[in-house]
Prior knowledge:
The protein is an all-beta fold.
Amino acid sequence: MEYDPAQMLLAKMYMPDDFPYVIYRRAGWPEWPPDPSFISFPRSGEFITAMAIWEPYDVEILQAGQVGTVLVVPLWPEFWRHLKAGQTLNRLNAPFSAQILEPLKKETSA
């Protein structure tokens, strides 16, 4: 799947040792649309929830006990532009989070 680099973040994710599922790269299966996840993060002193697609970036499959870089593609990037490297993204309904390595690129006016 092709992504606009200005509309994605890179984050480091640790999968807990007892997490029974995997996150896999879907680039080889374009007919399968990615499933978005609900992610929470701080904004203006509160936690908000927004949707994004997670996908391993440096490995094909990210599974229990592994650490890897994930590509995070927000469904509504404007909610994510304030985030900076080092901030944490928490996946709702799953016991893991990710630390932002590379935030969204700032929008430029044409």
